[in-house]
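Sample entry (207 residues):
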Amino acid sequence: MVKAGKRSTRSGDDTLWDEVATLKRERILAEAAKLIAERGYHGTTIDAIAEKFGATKPFVYYHFESKADLLVEICQRGTVRALEAADRAISTNGSPWERLDQFVTDFTSIALENHDYVAVYFREEINLPPVHAERINNMRKEIDRKLTRLLEEGVQAGDFKVEDSQICCLVIAGMVSYAFAWYREGGRLSTVQIAAQMRQLIRNMVT
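Predicted structure, serialized as tokens:
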């Protein structure tokens, strides 16, 4: 609610401040994800994260309430984006093949571009506050439900030959998600090339 006498519109300075704050948060998250992926959650301190910026702990605490808060943000990042990709694949027009290709492309790109975040989630899920661990796990289950539904639509249309859509969904999701374990930035294949290979492998799986 806007108080009397206050303008309801925000100034350009406010918008710019928000953009700068967002950039700072994103940089903190990126550096924290790298450190936690390398050293583990318990081996990473707020001091170490702050040192990446030549800053102090208050700089980090201004943007995040605690190290646990940072972990939650890191762990949910890839899952939120993967769920958005599943929503797009389910809701868009197109054949089951086209929608499956779109999902695999988007899901692979998300997993590779956020590989530090994904690695931290799989390795450090046990350190998440229970309420957040359950929430993220529920999002992952929703992704599986949407992908299973897409596979079943492909079977009903006569496009896919899948005996068990739920098992096939888990194999696809696991194959793409665990790319963080072997993917290396600047490696032999680009993310676009890896996504293309993932699409072909999964096409072979469902035909």
